[in-house]
Amino acid sequence: MTAVDWPAVRTRVLTLLECDPEQGTTAPPLTAQQVAEAEADLGAPFPPDYRDYLLHVSAGGWFLDELRRTEHGWGWAPTHRGADPTAGLALIADRGHGAAVGLALTGPHRGTVWMDNRPHHEVYPLRAEDGRAATFTEWLLDWLAHMEELAGATPTQRGQVAYCWHMGVETPIDWCPPPDSRG
Length: 183
Hints:
By secondary structure, the chain is an alpha+beta fold. The chain is built from 5 helices and 7 strands, in the order αααβββββββαα. It has a single domain, classed as 3-Layer(aba) Sandwich (SMI1/KNR4-like), CATH 3.40.1580. Strands 3-4-5-6-7 form a 5-stranded antiparallel beta sheet, with no helix packed on it. A two-stranded antiparallel sheet has the order 1-2. Residues 169-183 have low confidence and may be disordered.
């Protein structure tokens, strides 16, 4: 994968939030010391691209759950899930109804993203167009590009597109076609 301009990614995220404040907010990036503390507390180093995201874009809070320290230690909010290094999957983005997007922290799939839909007994990799398991960066940039296409769409339209994307229509990181009418 080519180098990512993480400050430009942060600018894109902030621009989207400015255009649509209903989407919420995003936390500022973490410091290198905070990232190291989180890795130590959670028991596994983060994949390099997720680490770069945390250092240069955001600790989360809009599309991704916010990585933060509380009195219970480091975890992802709002549910304050920690990582399970034995399972190798950190649940970094709540998708509702018990489903979440996970980031593989260890093992042969380290750095790839997964749909953890255990209420339906499904855990599967989110795949790039070529069939490979998508990396965190591929998944994030795919989401960002599609959110930019949907600028100006209604919340219902955005929700439908997001639902299709998360439920794996076509290939899991692909999206449904954008709505024709944005009214």
